[in-house]
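Following up on my earlier thread - several people asked me to post the actual chain instead of describing it. Fair enough. Here it is, all 576 residues.
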Amino acid sequence: MLWSQSFLKTSKTDPSDAEIPSHKLIIRSGYVKKLSQGIFTYGPVFLRSLRKLENIIREELEAIGSQEILMPMVQSSSVWNESGRWSKMGPELLRFKNRLDQDCCLGATHEEVVTDFLRHDVNSYKDFPLSVFQIQNKYRDEIRPRFGLMRGREFLMKDAYSFDRNKEESIVAYQKFKKAYQNIFDRVGLDYRVVKADSGAMGGSLTEEFQVLAEIGEDELLISDGSDFAANREVCACLPNLEPPTQVFEKEELIETPGLESMEALAEFLKTDVSNLVKTMFFKVEIEEAKSENIAVLMRGSDSVNLLKLKNVLGALQQPQALEAHEVESEVGSPPGSCGPKGLEMRIFADQNLKVFKSCFVGANKKGYHLSGVQPGKDFKIESFNDFRLAQEGDPSPEGDGKLKLIRGIEVGHIFYLGQTYTSPKSLNFNYLDNNGKAQIVEMGCYGIGVGRTLQAAIEQNHDDKGSIWPKAISPYQVHISWLDPGDKDTSEWLEGFVSGLKDKGIDYFIDDRKERPGVKFKDADLLGFPVRVVLGKRGFGNNEVECVLRCKNEKHVATKDEAFDLTLKLLQEAI
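Reply from S.P.:
Thanks for posting it. Predicted structure:
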């Protein structure tokens, strides 16, 4: 491909709305262009990378027997009502009415549609195992799209679905997809981790994320330094701390604590460690649709509440919301900072680490006062003890040896064992007849990869201050030829033979034949970030020299005209 014949326009300046390097680079490189917030047009060069990644995905999924289909982006509300998700999905699901006044939505996900596609024709145990996938645009009406393709409104996604006769066979399918995902991301050349995750609105009991490691990653991950344990911080379990507090407040006493509203200030006042104190927090929890209640949660003063754990333990429909200060004062009669469990007329839950507390130092529900010697069971009732704690770096690993280390990641893939979430009679009622003629409910799994997000994540993980550093498996082109004197007869003849050799090897190339200064061409080559750059100019050529640059290491090598082709192949092998 000649630059002069392609539609590619680079920019020297960063876009004003870009916050992270990869977002800046995909815009400056002319790879994508923003149409509106969270919606982008992919240019022809970036589209080449997209297709390469799609082909890798297709090869690996077809290798495990999954078949490609294509489902509609516009979906009727009828199947969503059957599954019960029409009313449960939040504003991210873009709903509208067609001219027949029928409720529709833009596809944010396709569990309902794919189940409906198969359930009418798949009815025998002989039809299984069965899995299908598609690569198609999705739309989620994000309240705050950001980071370019990382969190857009419209995005390209690969979603796959497995259907099996029972749980055991469905778990086998889950493991096959997990291995296929590992093959995909290994082939792409990404540094990633597979971590335990939350199923969220998808449902199901087993789920893992594929996280590309990057400093700007939105997700916090906890990995063990002594085993292969890894989990998203939001679901990371905490082992119970059975060590009793180092100071016990047994004496029943009302203590004046003016202005001491933080745990740290209170601990300093009492000359104790903050972990010896108990804090009381208040949350609004929606247990049933349009029905909520206020609850209290007790934690050690040094610990933070994990809202996702709280949601899951209580079976809440949405993530609990902390009460505002005025709501707490209206409910309890005291502002936050002086609140405690004694006398509360609401359900009280406690973190498992409070089991060792026989008496507590807590707020007195009177501004500027606290109580010591308050006893669980005697002075207040605890509904249940649970793991509500937000895991921290340095915690013991919940599985295996070692301590937890905090890293950041970008979620590029997510796999779920859904079980009967969408196939049960209470949902879409997908069943089959077993070999005894008895009706059985189908077991299901689903598996997603953010295609555009993966490409940007690859740039986020592989870039420098000059530009992108594409992994060769998904680079738009593998060889970038900076032709400094386009039209020159001698270099033109040599170049013709050089690219002919690349074609024979199946190596794609991009020739910068613009009438620009060498410095401009070199900067653009670094910006675009293809694995190997070949610099061809009259001056060097006259001295029997061709320069080759390995982008991932910024290494410059000089070869003779006869050696340049072999050197290019060697550098491509060394590229990431």
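The CA atoms of residues 370 and 448 lie 51 Å apart. That should answer part of your original question.
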